């Protein structure tokens, strides 16, 4: 055969080395299979690496704290009698720390590692926990179960989260106060009516009628005063409200936990009433209601700012989701998330979409002030109303038993927020016991009057949440009957204190303030309305230390002087002042009683006490 060779290759296209590189049968298919194999190999490696990552990093909870009401238990299977007694004592301690509530994490080690238990072990552990609860007079509620599958074993292991709640004894239920904020017509009163009455709204405001106190509120549909509503939960977590025609007294008797809602006004012209409700009634939490179809409008931002200035933890409820499309609701939620993340707020929004989210939100909300749960619901269709009830049921108190015990050891101090005249009872005052213990028959002094004096009185009967109560403890709100004491001598902002306290009054005080907003300059001689606790009075700026004037965003120590009558103040009390568009916050740093007035008042009080002796 004649084969031609040229410089680079044959004329037929063969290479110059004379070798004929004809592809062997099937070689092309082998190259394709190599590529396929390499792709499959890469996928397998990725899967293996993911499995390794999940197996190397098991989920953790924060390590168990020695104090607080949360307890981790790996398992509670067939304990000995000695061990059982120790566990019951431990449960009693956790209940005391949580003021009647404790949360047990079953299947979790003390360092927070989620180990999990088999079905049999979990059943035995829950049975033991139920026996422990019965021994200390409590009930348990299974909040949720979660599967632990990070080790990819075929055996399904679970962890359980259990709420233990003490059965009420001698009317000592856990009471949380929730202030309800939001713009006018956002659905605040309607939502409270649905929660506390147990019936859905008809879309025209029927549910809110029982909450209104005045005729003009019923006619306009707008809240102008402060009203209180209660929602109870049994030791097993069941809702107790007026749906079964219960009276307030029956609700209190059958509830282990009470949520007292403080319904505040949304209209701007009632802003002073809203501020008084926030500063005077000392709410534990604030619920900001936003209408889904209008979004953040009107006083919404102002109410959010007030709650943050007073350091009241806040969560948000987006109402009226039945009136608008899903896209509109999502837009309102995005708008809220944007505002909460701004530098002035620095909050972490958490949208609650299922019962598991509600449990997590309630626990994290109480532990961290930056977490802000967001609920979307309807008072007409009832959509997601159960999530809010789950949230309220699990929501723990902010203060522990130790802090309350310390307050109870102090002398009695009761803030006067409301004054009534009740037929056949006489003068009645409503308010909050700031410190100490108050019992029926206690003798206290009330003041200061316009002349700066304190008057003696005797406490008759006590009612808490509309039911009779014999002993009032620090942090609890109640009404006290004062018999035939002259109502004209009382006013909002007074205090009822123990005679042993020898209370002092002041006309002047100094406060470290931050000017949030002012149109021009804030200087000496400017008059503002000052809110300190249950006190609301006009005060004049006497001087600014180290500065001639203040502008928006600046800080200073300012001396204020009351213009009408002296007041009883506490060091460190939170302060909020306003006048038109001017707003500022701060805290009281020192009291500057007028020497002449103080000596005159002290001598007058002493003479009256000696005369009565």
Could you please describe the fold and organization of this structure?
This protein is of the alpha+beta class and 613 residues long. The protein is 28% helix and 30% strand. The protein has 13 helices and 30 strands. The protein has an eight-stranded mixed β-sheet, with helices on both faces. The protein has an eight-stranded antiparallel β-sheet with strand order 17-16-22-13-14-21-18-19. The chain has a six-stranded antiparallel barrel with strand order 23-28-26-25-29-30. β25 and β26 form a beta hairpin. α2 packs across α3. The longest helix is centred in the N-terminal third of the chain and has 30 residues, at 27-56. The protein is globular and about 75 Å long.
Annotation keywords:
613 residues; alpha+beta; 8-stranded mixed β-sheet; disordered N terminus
Concise structural overview:
This protein is of the alpha+beta class and 613 residues long. The protein is globular and about 75 Å long.
Strand order of the largest sheet: 7-6-8-5-9-10-12-11
Principal-axes geometry comes out as globular
**Helix vs. strand class:** alpha+beta
How would a textbook summarize the main sheet? Answer: 8 strands, mixed
Architecture blueprint of SSEs:
Elements: H1 27-56, E1 70-73, H2 81-97, E2 101-106, H3 119-135, E3 138-148, E4 157-166, E5 174-182, H4 188-197, H5 215-220, E6 227-233, E7 239-240, H6 248-254, E8 257-263, H7 271-280, E9 285-291, H8 300-309, E10 314-319, H9 326-341, E11 348-351, H10 355-367, E12 371-376, H11 385-394, H12 401-409, E13 413-422, E14 426-435, E15 437-439, E16 443-447, E17 455-458, E18 462-464, E19 467-469, E20 471-473, E21 477-481, E22 495-497, E23 508-517, E24 522-523, E25 527-532, E26 535-544, E27 549-550, E28 555-562, E29 574-579, E30 582-592, H13 595-612
Parallel strand pairs: 1-2, 5-8, 5-9, 9-10, 10-12, 11-12
Antiparallel strand pairs: 2-4, 3-4, 6-7, 6-8, 13-14, 13-22, 14-21, 15-20, 16-17, 16-22, 18-19, 18-21, 23-28, 23-30, 24-27, 25-26, 25-29, 26-28, 29-30
Helix pairs in contact: 2-3, 10-11
């Amino acid at each position: 055969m004649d084969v031609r060779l040229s410089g680079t290759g044959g004329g037929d296209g063969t290479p110059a080395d004379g070798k004929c590189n004809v592809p062997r049968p099937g070689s092309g298919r082998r190259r394709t299979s190599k590529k396929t194999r390499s792709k499959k190999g890469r996928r397998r490696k990725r899967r293996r690496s993911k499995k390794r990552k999940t197996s190397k990093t098991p989920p953790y909870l924060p390590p168990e704290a020695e104090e607080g009401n949360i307890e981790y238990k790996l398992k509670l299977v067939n304990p000995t009698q000695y061990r059982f007694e120790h566990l019951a004592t431990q449960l009693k301690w956790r209940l005391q720390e949580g003021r009647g509530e404790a949360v047990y994490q079953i299947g979790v080690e003390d360092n927070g590692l989620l180990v999990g238990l088999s079905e049999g072990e979990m059943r035995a552990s829950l049975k033991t926990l139920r026996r422990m609860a019965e021994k200390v007079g409590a009930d348990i509620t299974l909040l949720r179960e979660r599967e632990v599958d990070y080790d990819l074993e075929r055996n399904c292991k679970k962890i359980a989260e259990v709420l233990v709640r003490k059965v009420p004894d001698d009317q000592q239920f856990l009471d949380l106060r929730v202030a309800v904020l939001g713009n006018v017509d956002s659905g605040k009163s309607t939502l409270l009516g649905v929660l506390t009455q147990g019936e859905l709204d008809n879309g025209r405001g029927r549910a809110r009628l029982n909450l209104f106190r005045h005729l003009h509120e019923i006619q306009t549909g707008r809240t102008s005063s402060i009203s209180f509503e209660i929602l109870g939960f049994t030791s097993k977590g069941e809702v107790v409200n007026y749906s079964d025609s219960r009276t307030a007294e029956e609700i209190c008797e059958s509830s282990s936990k009470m949520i007292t809602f403080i319904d505040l006004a949304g209209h701007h012209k009632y802003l002073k009433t809203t501020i008084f409700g926030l500063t005077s009634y000392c709410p534990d939490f604030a619920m900001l209601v936003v209408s889904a179809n209008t979004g953040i409008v009107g006083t919404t931002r102002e109410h959010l700012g007030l709650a943050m200035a007073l350091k009241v933890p806040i969560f948000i409820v987006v109402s009226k989701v039945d009136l608008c499309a899903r896209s509109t609701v999502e837009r309102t939620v995005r708008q809220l998330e944007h505002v909460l993340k701004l530098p002035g707020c620095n909050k972490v929004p958490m949208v609650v979409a299922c019962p598991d989210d509600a449990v997590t939100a309630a626990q994290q909300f109480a532990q961290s002030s930056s977490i802000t749960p967001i609920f979307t619901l309807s008072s007409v269709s009832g959509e997601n109303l159960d999530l809010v009830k789950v949230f309220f049921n699990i929501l723990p108190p902010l203060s522990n038993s130790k802090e309350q015990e310390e307050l109870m050891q102090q002398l009695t101090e009761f803030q006067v927020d409301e004054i009534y005249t009740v037929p056949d009872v006489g003068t009645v005052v409503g308010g909050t016991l700031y410190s100490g213990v108050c019992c029926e028959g206690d003798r206290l002094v009330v003041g200061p009057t316009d002349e700066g004096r304190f008057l003696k009185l005797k406490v008759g009967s006590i009612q808490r949440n509309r039911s009779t109560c014999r002993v009032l403890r620090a942090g609890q709100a109640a009404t006290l009957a004062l018999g035939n004491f002259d109502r004209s001598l009382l006013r909002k902002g007074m205090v009822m204190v123990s005679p042993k306290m020898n209370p002092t009054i002041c006309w002047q005080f100094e406060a470290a303030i931050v000017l949030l907003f002012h149109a021009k300059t804030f200087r000496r001689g400017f008059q503002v309305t000052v809110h300190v606790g249950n006190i609301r009075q006009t005060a004049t700026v006497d001087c600014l230390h180290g500065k001639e004037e203040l502008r928006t965003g600046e800080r200073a120590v300012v001396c204020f002087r009351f213009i009408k009558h002296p007041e009883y103040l506490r060091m460190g009390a939170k302060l909020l002042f306003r006048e038109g568009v001017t707003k500022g916050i701060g805290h009281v740093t020192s009291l500057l009683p007028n020497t002449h007035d103080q000596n005159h008042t002290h001598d007058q009080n002493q003479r009256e006490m000696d005369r009565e002796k």
